[in-house]
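Data availability excerpt. The first of two example chains:
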Amino acid sequence: MPKRDSIEFDLNNLPDTIEVEFENGVFDLTLQRNKLSGQLTIDIVSVDDDSRAIYGEPITYGVPLWYWCSYDWIPVERLIPFDEAGLESTVTLSKLQNSVFILDDDSIWESGDNDGA
């Protein structure tokens, strides 16, 4: 179980869409898997304005989702596919939500669980 807040999908029912409330709005996140390449991707669509959408963001280990985007409507939370145990270095369907989670990188600091190190 991750120490940070995580976003979880129904991996047995892809594509799977969940509604997530972030600091600056509510968004639908859809996880899907490319059948040819096996690449996992995620879509983000604002519930309030479906013109605010990004489709097919690749899920890459250790790389924050939408890091390249400067739109002011993108969630301010840093969502990062990561293994807190440090054992994995890639994201696959079999690793997602077993050892690699999509984590809110800011949540560990907000909860006060850090040791100051």
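And the second chain:
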Amino acid sequence: MSARESRAKSKTDEALEQGKEELHAALEELETTLANAAPDDTGTVRLDEEAHLLVPPLSAEDVPAEAS
């Protein structure tokens, strides 16, 4: 491997590591946000009592009557 290829691989490895760290930080923040959402806050994405992800419809979204 040439010196140039070695530097390129090093930069790639650093970028991948940074991306992994950012992903883990974002996931930790998401878990905290979901865990702290109040169960009666129906407009918020949250976890229910059984740790299922609840994603409510958008307020501007038309919900068919049979889905209510």
